[in-house]
Amino acid sequence: MKLIMENWRRFLQETANKEFLEEFQKIYEEWHDLQATYGTIHRGTYYDSEGNAYPPKEVQSVPIEDQPEYVKDAPEFYGRHSDHPATRRATFSQTQSEIDIERKLMTLFQKFADQDFFKNDVLKFHDLSYHAHVYQPTSESGLNFANFSREGYLKLGAIPGFTGRDTMSCHGSTTGKLRGQYGIILQGFTIFASRGDLGSQTLRTAHQKVREKYSTSGLPKRPSPAKVHTPDRIEWLKKRSERLRQRNIKRGKEPKPPMTDDDAIEVINSVILNSADVSARDITGRARTSGMIEEILLDNWTIEGWYFRTTHGERLPNPEEFWRKAYEIGINQPVYEVDADGTKREIDLAIYFGEEEEIE
């Protein structure tokens, strides 16, 4: 840990986000030290040369007195989620110390983020065809989980002036293009943004007692400090880049300059603070041109529209049941049809589901 942090300090003077990284360093150290008190962060199941699976030899153990009350009430359910910071975050079973550190990270983001950029220049959308890594638990857990349905968003879209209080995870685009099979176009206040997955909470794992805890503020979603920037990966990334460079040299291609410490930080640091961060360089040294922001955490959000991707030969929007329900409910926002390259155009669902113009 000491060597990692010494290297980190040396790299700070070369990065464009020097102030952000200097303050993030302190937060990362605090998070790292806290996790060390809980034990080793395991990397999941491992396999031997014959393909036999083995559980981690060492896992974290969090003192029961530091865990939320509802965790103590359901030891069988939470037992399989308590040995790693990522699963504790996903299931709202973190300690208060973990929560406090992640709140510091979110406050730091607000200090440096260009909110005008996120509000005016980023198209924010929630991909309803995306399946979360952590699924809704079953009733066998003995806890009262709300029924999750994507059609539930349609009911929200029919409520005049609706504003979402639970933090929403969504994608962002600076080119106006959308991805995913179907989803929601949103507007709201950006509380964090990243080029990668932030490992935030999964809202469908929030049972009744969790919702009661956050009844006044709405359910939170917070980023993992380990997902933001891991300083121990800088040397690894430089070596990987050099292997790619040498391979191109052998193939007779014009070699790019060796990756510097500053280049490595630009690639690893996944935080999006402004427009320049969206086009930061990848491992090959090329600027990213997709204009996509992988994850944005959005508060006080409103539904601005809906979209679905068309596929050659399809006669009705997919999934048909969802869009038929949207037409029947009478959502208040425009609906867009998205073509193969992600460009949208507004349509009227009546051309598909209206009685007079129903497709034979």
Shape: globular
Helix content: 25-40%
Average pLDDT confidence is 84
Q: Major β-sheet, in short?
A: 6 strands, mixed
- In angstroms, what is the radius of gyration? 23 Å
In sequence order, what are the helices and strands, one letter per element? HHEEHHHHHEHEEHHHHHEHEEH
What is the terminal separation in angstroms? 67 Å
Strand content: 15-25%
**Helix/strand/pairing category:** alpha+beta
Give the total of beta strands. Answer: 8
Task: Set down the secondary structure blueprint.
Blueprint: H1 2-12, H2 18-38, E1 46-47, E2 53-54, H3 69-73, H4 75-79, H5 85-90, H6 96-112, H7 115-120, E3 123-127, H8 152-157, E4 168-173, E5 182-194, H9 208-213, H10 225-228, H11 234-250, H12 261-268, H13 275-278, E6 292-309, H14 320-329, E7 335-338, E8 344-347, H15 350-353
Parallel strand pairs: 6-7
Antiparallel strand pairs: 1-2, 3-4, 3-5, 4-6, 5-6, 7-8
Explain what this protein looks like in three dimensions:
With 360 residues, this protein is α+β, with helices and mostly antiparallel strands. The protein is 36% helix and 15% strand. The strands form two sheets. Strands 3, 4, 5, 6, 7 and 8 form a six-stranded mixed sheet that branches. The protein has a two-stranded antiparallel ribbon with strand order 1-2. Helix 1 packs antiparallel against helix 2 and helix 11 (234-250) packs across helix 12. It is globular and about 60 Å long. The N and C termini lie far apart (67 Å). Mean pLDDT is 84; it is low at 2-16 and 356-360.
